[in-house]
Design goal:
The protein is mainly alpha-helical. It has helices at residues 2-16, 21-51, 55-79, 89-100, 110-129, 143-152, 156-168, 174-190, 196-201, 208-212, and strands at 131-132, 141-142. The protein is built from ten helices and two strands. 20% of the residues are buried.
């Protein structure tokens, strides 16, 4: 029985044969066709979430982002089949950009993948709806109000107060951010990067360590 299974696997691999340039071209064409509607869906969901920040819109955006990220990770891993080929410049560039297109790589574990995208959407929501209420003031200041104040204000004490007040809204999400980093690093390592930071630095047409230097 074991020998039969081994022979079946060997036959399958043999039938597949070595990768070809035409196969790589077809792969990237199919990848683009698969990712385009997912990208459009994700951008629409993110726009709605940013415009109407609620728990429901955050959940919808997180789910659409998860679908896009998981599909991109899947295709990035499959694209390594063509790493040994001498490809046309446009195809090689597209495959490289596919691998580097992610700013966030979710872990392979479905529960961790869902958790990471949910945390990311939640933190973005906290940022978008955050407000600083100065002591004694009748109104609270959102990000746009504080941006105008920082751009036009000339009172050092007022500017420092606004700076500290805005940064205070981030303290409650520190535990979420710590978990976000751990999961993002795990996802990046599964793609062959040292961590999420190395994946980001790899986008600059040079090894991550060279960019850091």
């Amino acid at each position: 029985m074991k020998r039969t299974i081994v022979l079946m696997v060997a036959a399958t691999l043999s039938a597949a044969g070595p990768p070809t340039v035409r196969e790589a071209q077809k792969f990237i064409e199919d990848a683009e066709a698969r990712l385009l509607p997912l990208s459009v869906e994700g951008q629409r969901a993110d726009w709605v979430k940013s415009t109407y920040i609620t728990d429901d819109t955050e959940a919808l955006a997180a789910k659409s982002d998860e679908r896009l990220i998981n599909a991109t990770v899947d295709l990035a891993k499959k694209s390594t089949r063509f790493d040994s080929l001498k490809l046309p410049d446009d195809v090689a560039r597209k495959i490289k950009l596919l691998k580097l297109s992610l700013t966030l790589a979710t872990p392979a574990d479905p529960k961790e993948s869902e958790e990471l995208t949910r945390i990311a959407a939640s933190m973005e929501g906290t940022y978008g709806k955050g407000k600083y209420c100065p002591p004694g003031a009748s109104v609270c200041l959102d990000l746009e109000d504080l941006t105008r104040l920082m751009a036009n204000g000339r009172n050092p004490a007022e500017l420092l107060d606004a700076w500290r007040g805005w940064h205070a809204i981030a303290r409650p999400i520190r535990p979420e951010f710590v978990r976000y980093v751990a999961l993002a690093n795990k996802g990046a390592r599964e793609l062959g990067f040292a961590d999420d930071g190395a994946m980001w630095r790899a986008k600059y047409d040079m090894p991550p360590d060279d960019f850091a230097k």
